[in-house]
Amino acid sequence: MASDLKEAGGLTRLFVTSALESGASVTLDQGQAHYLLHVLRAKPGDRVLVFNGRDGEWQAELAAAGKRGVVLTARARTAQQEDVPDLWLAFAPVKKTPSDYLVQKATELGVSKLQPVFTRRTIVSRINDERLLANAMEAAEQSGRLTVPEIGAATTLEKLLAAWPRERAIFFCDEGGEALPLADAARKAGDGPAAILTGPEGGFDPAERERLRALAFVTPVSLGPRILRADTAALAALAIWQSVKGDWR
Amino acid sequence: MASDLKEAGGLTRLFVTSALESGASVTLDQGQAHYLLHVLRAKPGDRVLVFNGRDGEWQAELAAAGKRGVVLTARARTAQQEDVPDLWLAFAPVKKTPSDYLVQKATELGVSKLQPVFTRRTIVSRINDERLLANAMEAAEQSGRLTVPEIGAATTLEKLLAAWPRERAIFFCDEGGEALPLADAARKAGDGPAAILTGPEGGFDPAERERLRALAFVTPVSLGPRILRADTAALAALAIWQSVKGDWR
What we know:
The structure is a homodimer.
Chain A: E1 6-7, E2 10-11, E3 13-15, E4 25-27, H1 30-39, E5 47-51, E6 57-66, E7 69-79, E8 87-91, H2 96-109, E9 113-118, H3 129-143, E10 150-151, E11 155-156, H4 157-162, E12 169-173, E13 180-181, H5 182-188, E14 194-198, H6 206-213, E15 218-222, H7 230-244
Parallel strand pairs in A: 3-5, 8-9, 8-14, 9-10, 9-11, 12-14, 12-15, 13-15
Antiparallel strand pairs in A: 1-2, 4-7, 5-6, 6-7
């Protein structure tokens, strides 16, 4: 008998690239096909949820599985398309495991774009874009999101600021010096697009901090009296922004 | 020449059990002694910071290292004793790596007590208290805290609630059903002691939710429209509480 496929967190959700409408054929990538057939042991007729970031969420059933791949058929829309708030996270990449963790958590917390940025004290010199995207996709699937956050091409802080869209307010998590608590700064800010900017272990260097503080679209903010690891700071800032300006209100 | 011992995050800080006052001898445990001598390659006269949760933070210098252990001498107080806000985290334990992460992050975010609690859907059946404490100590050392969070003995939700000190408000992170956003609930609450309560993957079961919602000292709260992993929920809740009621204001 056909059944709804479930994981620990609830119904299995898959991010797909195909267009979704009633009766549409949905092709899975190799990893998803393997997961469905060999981990969840799906049989024809079994149902999962799919979303593509554009057409909402759909119930889809396993139509065919063969050498040419696995195809689902979209049956009924289960949720209208909905975007997360327009909040970017620009972050100095940290080591592999904390970076994985950061990307997963930021996706759950509802960030719209993840922007890796190299600062002077950033030790990590290479970004694995595929790994970053895979972590974001998995977290989007499990958190019930209808979009996967956009992944910006890694760049330097200098280039990022030079090309920055000025209408997007940057809340710059600054460990040293005077700064408003993030909650207060967010409350005072307008309702436009925003970004959280967090540094590497050891923070931004003095020249970077000076440069940031001189920019009109940058507000330095504080995250309390303790020293937070880079990934903790990013997650705390996202949660607070969501509670003040985002969709947690 | 004697020097200040440093790590990536700044001056090396060690949590010790000895009383601290000018001239006091401070004995290190085996792990700390090994770290100081063989990882940081400390020499007599080298300086670190020490704290014991009672007497503030002190600069101390390496006095002797031999078969009987490593002894430091406390020289000058560098910070007065200061406590974190009176905020507990009662959490359903999750798997090993997320639990390590949760304990570290919660310590950085400034929790005063970590209370593992077994709920009906908790899969983990055993708590490694030593591992929990080691993670909390390390995070306290690196975050600049002057205390290590207390670790409560693991217990069941039922027993925890039966013995609960009623003056301590519980903010119960409830995934289903109507609930105020945590920021609003915290703002409305009094200034007394508080606790965040988070469930396991899959959440609390219906009977537990009903029981919790019936208690006068429990306020169900929401953490936005997405499904958060257990550890993400705990960290987000701690950050929001700190920004509304804690020492991030």
